[in-house]
Amino acid sequence: MVTALTVARHLVPAPTMNDMKFANRGFPVSANDVSRRFEGVSRAVMEGFEYGADVAKQDEVVRRLDWIDPFYQSLAYEGAVAALILRDLLVFGTTSRAKAFVDGPAEPHSLMAYVGYGLVMSRLPRSMWRRALPRFDSNALVSQLSWLAVDGYGFDRAFFDPGRWIDGGRRAPEIDWEGYPSYFPRAFDQGIGRALMFVHGGDSVAAGAAVERFAPDRRGDLWSGIGAALGYLGGQPRAALLDAMSDAAAHAPEVAVGAVMAIKARHYAGYVPESTELAAEVICGSSVEEISALADEAAQDPPGGGPAPDYEVWRQRVRAEFADSAVRSA
């Protein structure tokens, strides 16, 4: 079946798989097991997007996604969510398909859903962001995660234009998102932090060195993004994770916060690779199950309407559990 999005996406400039290959992007990366692990993310997201864009029946989308390597499966679901959001916007101007998908068969992967919207943001005029923003609320934590869309947006901008956002150190502007414009650059920087790990092929030492070229007030959020990549994709040996925590120094708790989100997403989706178990042990000093429970507990009773968004309150609660990690990693 030819959908409206099938036609529209051929009219709007979009990245191809060749655009996403690290060598073609000029990233300073040598081919190895870790860099190939990170490079595989783009393939999974794009495969999921293709299914969400071209397949009419939700059950068939799920059937195809479930054939994908479990290591990348949630990322493919993220791509499918992005496509469904665009289909809703183009056809009905609602988020009915995307929400039904995330509340239904994609619910185990729901913690990744807003990141998919961040990829959509990059390809929409800003005036359409609010109209297209879905509301996922299948559990207490995911209902607070719309800021991961800004994270995803920051990742996308830095991945495709590292000269401006990484080498040039450009700071994102304040944009009203959920009523907290001053937090927009911080969430954006968390996405840049994740992108640093991709630009450097999963080399946390190189990514950490790049953080030091940014203004000091941005480094905590950048390290948090690195922690998310370490927790979700990993691939580094124990010694490299220990080195990352040492390099982060005072920002080690932020590394842990990013890792907690990634570990929770893995656990919630029902697939936890050995690299995530190692990250839980080394970065967070705990088990995957205990970290997942911490993430859920921190999401309870969000204050709402305070000086910081509920998402940042969640992060602060998690960070408090690792307040001494900077001392332990020193």
Terminal CA distance: 58 Å
What profile does the largest beta sheet have?
none
* C-alpha geometry: globular
What average pLDDT do the residues reach? 90
Radius of gyration: 18 Å
Q: Order of SSEs, N→C?
A: HHHHHHHHHHHHHHHHHHHH
The computed structural class is: mainly alpha
Helical proportion? 55-70%
Task: Tell me the fraction of residues in β-strands, as a range.
Answer: under 5%
Tell me the number of helical segments per DSSP (H or I, 4 or more residues long).
20
Can you count the beta strands?
A: 0
Instruction: Outline the low-pLDDT stretches.
Output: 1-5
Task: Summarize the structure in words.
It is a single chain. The chain has helices at residues 4-8, 17-20, 22-25, 33-54, 58-65, 70-91, 96-103, 113-121, 129-132, 147-160, 162-167, 184-199, 204-211, 219-232, 238-248, 252-269, 274-284, 288-298, 310-320, 325-329. It is an all-alpha fold. Helix 8 (113-121) crosses helix 10 (147-160), helix 10 crosses helix 12 (184-199) and helix 12 (184-199) crosses helix 13 (204-211). The longest helix has 22 residues, at 33-54. Mean pLDDT is 90; it is low at 1-5.
